[in-house]
Structure prediction request, 179 residues.
Amino acid sequence: GEGMKKKMFALAAGLCLVLGMAGCGKKEDAGTKDVPVSQIRDAVAEAYGENYFADYQMSEEEAGTLLQADTENWEEFIAEKAMISTRVDTFVAVKAKEGKAEEVQGQLESYQEYLKKDSMQYPMNLPKIQASEVKVYGDYVFFIMLGAADEEGLDEEAALKFYQEQNQVAVKAIEGVLL
Prediction:
């Protein structure tokens, strides 16, 4: 009902204050544009150009299995990963069904957690995994682990920073389309 919505909004607004997230409150009123996830994906892929390595598009079943996620909460999605097994590049864009964004966010965060803690990975991919991001804009939820390969053989800290910056390319592209 309406009261519940107000309560949730107050809660969300409070959370924004606590987390001090820039532009967090603004998002609530301005709202995101309603665009197909394919459009967002294309903007992201274009932003990376030849450094977009998530070249295999997963079916709903594959995505659900990989992310251990209940795809019933997904109204629309694109999930792509690198075909080459030595690459971890992954891009997931989900438009959640109304009121389900938080649940979807939780699922993508558990997947991220699993990658960081439990999955067996090539050492060279660890910084990229550590740098991965889950972003939420209204009903849209994203998992971002993309970008150029770190060719310089940077030390771990530098590599982490490098991949965090690489992910910002996607974040900018997403915000360019959605906000």
